[in-house]
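3.2 Worked example (two chains)
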Amino acid sequence: MLKTMQNALTWAGMARDVEKNVRSCLICTKNKHPTVKYGKLPEKTVVTRPWFEVAIDSIGPYGKQKFGVYTMVDTTTRLVERQAVADASSDETAYLFDRLWLCRYPRPGRSYGITAESTTTRNPQASSIIERLHRHARKIEQVRKNNLRENAGRRAWAYQPGDRILLKRDGNINSKLTTLYDGPYTVLAVRDNGTLVIDKGRYTETVHIPRVVPYKDQRGEDCELPDKTQRGDSRKQTTA
């Protein structure tokens, strides 16, 4: 820019004036990617006394009713109180803090003249404890939605010890002529975390339920067999 202007113009201190104008240009500042980050993060004070400081934040909205959740945490003892609310106003926040916290627990050290220290959005460093708690709550909601989406295309089935199942092969070792499943294997145990313990002959293996399917025996019966009473009634009718 300076050399282009010098082809037609010149004055005393031209280089200094051009540099000053470019540095103060608002349009240039808005469109330039900054190479330096300004502003040091403040040091975090560590509070070692219980009931001295309480962090409050809200999360939401959730559901069709668009309700929110208020979270209150004692930053030292990590005591947590959560309450679902339909109104996210400051008056409701003050009322819930008084009813759920001040009326039940010792008052904070900064009591009778509590000053609110507001923080900005997208600033988890300012209240790291409560933001970490909300991060965990959001993760639980995300896992729940993923499970609902995964289960939407799956059939309800309750495995029992002794059932026979087929185990799906790993996708990266399949070839054109190999089968999609191995087995059948016998179920030894059913765990609450969505896994099965199966007998593979010389050893046992824990597998995830999405990798297995119930085994249909050679009689051609459906996987989901009727209960014993129904099977007994059908046999009597056949005999008759």
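3.2.1 Second chain
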Amino acid sequence: MTSIEEQVKNISLKAEDIKVTIHQIVHREYNDLLPSKSQHELLNLIKPLLGQVNKLDQKFEIELQPKIKAATTQHKDLLDEFNKTRIVTHFLQKICLCHSELILCKSCESNQFVKCATHLQTVKTELESLNPSSEIKIFKAVRNEYINQQTRVVNTINDVWLSILNWNMSPNLSWDSMNGHLKTSLKIDMKTLDNSIQMADVLQAMDILQSLHPKLKMFSQKLHTYLLKPLIKFQALTPVMEEKENCFTLKLTKKKIHSDKFTKATANVLLYKKVLDVIRFVKNSLFKNVDTENSTKHLEPMSAIGTFIWKELSESIIKDHLSLSVPSSNSQMEKYESTIGETLQFENDLRSEGFIPDDEDVLSKYIKDANVHFANKVCQDILSEARYIILTEMHNTIEVGVMNDRAAIAIPTTNTPNKEGEILNKKIKNILMGIEAVEDDFLQINTFAFPSCHISDCVQKLMDFVYQTMIKATESPYPMASQMVYSCRDIFDLFVNVVPTYHQANLKLPQLAALHFNNCMYLAHHCITLGHQFQNSLPGQLNSSSTTFVDLVPVLRKCGIDCFLEQLRSQQKEILNLLEPCEQFTQVVTINGSEIVKRSFNQIIHHLTRVAKQWEKVLPNNIFKQSLSVLINTALEYCLSAVLKMEDISADEAGQMHTLFTILIDRVPEIVRDCTGCKGEDFVLKDLIRSYSKFDFVIKILEASLQEIVDMWHGGEGSLATCMSENEARTMIRALFQNTERRSQALAKIKHQQSSMS
């Protein structure tokens, strides 16, 4: 190796000399432009050096490279062997440690739970650091021994835990009756522990073996289900604690409650005391001195129990007690301060017992938001009452009209309003709430009036309730008043969404569909002025033009109109079904065909008469006439359409149709004969029937001559031209009369006269 190093060093020195020489030659020739050695001389200078380099390279390949490869392989083998030895040594060290710990655990006395658990935990940690899938016999043996000893220690601790806790429950537990809970009891028997066994050691050992939290969780769930939850649900249940020779028992008993002295406030106080009694019983009997010993301070078993059940427990307290004690009036709000103080004290007591953390305040947050809950409860009560009214039967009706229309009342304003807004005087309040009748002095009949008709009694009660709520809003502070006003708006939305669905079957009946139409129009009528009536009397920002119900008017009207239009379409369909046997009057000349038409007409008159009697008692007079006219017009248009489609009408057919149509048109007054609102007003009904005049002229044309028809047309200015088009008149002439010169002249006159008019 030394000669090789010297040869390499000599070659390096020669290479440096040659490099300097070449640099000087190149510099003189290309920089100083001086003649220098030729390329051949330079190559001769380098060749000896190249020969020495080649010899040295051959020497490397022949002598050193095989030795280097052999040394590298040997080094790798030695390194692998060393790593294997180190792994085995590390494995054996851990196995020896596990073996030592298992021997120490086995040699511990049966009551030294903490030492046993510590040794087992050390073994567990060491075994987990090894490959769990190892098949080495010594590893499997140590692992099996660990499992056996751990099972033995855990079972021993579990037996101690179970011997301390004794639950007694009735098999007939029910949340519908508290009698089944009277047999529930929890006995904590500390006598089962030897003098050398401490509860703190049991808990610490379970914590080391990671079985403490599962045990506490199971115990917590039983504590909540069998003790705390029944005490919350049943006010008469109360816990009773007994102590005898280090044995503690908690039982549920029934306590008589004096209803005259029992209030919501006292119910909360009693509940808080019962919950605290149970928690303190568990802490003082089961976990006594656990928090004071340094070795178990970190366990905090009461905190763990609270973590497991506090969420569900607090929800039960809020749902079954605090939510029910939320005030429902302003006077009750003043008495609510005591409940707030008691709840804050209850949470402080729970913190002092270590049951909840210092930052836990779910109950106090709920109780401090009493104003919000109060407002929400008022709104819920309002909507609940409104829904109850809405869902009552709509058959019972009352008559309303101009003289009892509260929406037309002009509310006077006082000259000395207080800072909360104007207060309505007692008389106006009674009128609006429906207690007193509306007096003439408060009406503005000529300005705003609701027509006489019938509405459902429940709708009148609903409107009474709305006025009562609005009056309460005028007497409430702004936050509450705003909630009440918007609840009144929600009442109308509730009506629109509930009634068409809940009364869907009833609304298919003619009378109830008309009644629903009136109900919607009645509510919409009041919504027009409701905001203006109370605007000056509401507190705060509600005392402005923004307080309005006008936007609900089209919604309510649409609800009523859609229902009634659907009823009209249903009645029209029924009329067309009754006319279907007439077969477009094609068989009218036959005896059977004539009888069928007569029977259909009689059925239509009977049907319309029945509908008219139902509607006449409910609808306003003008709506009643218009609705009835639409149905009569449906029958007339069917007849007109059938006649105008005929291409050939014989004299017998024309005479028969004239007779039948005359009977029909003459019987139309029968439909409204018994209707008090239409007596003596047949001409008005005829004017409202769109096709009445046209139908009347068709009857005349069926018996008229060509000249009479031309005279009725009278150059497009006659009475016939006012209700029938040129094409319709020409069509009837072609169908009634044969193709003669006279018919052609008549058709030409109508056409010529019509052309002249255009």
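3.3 Remarks
The chain is about 65% helix and 5% strand.
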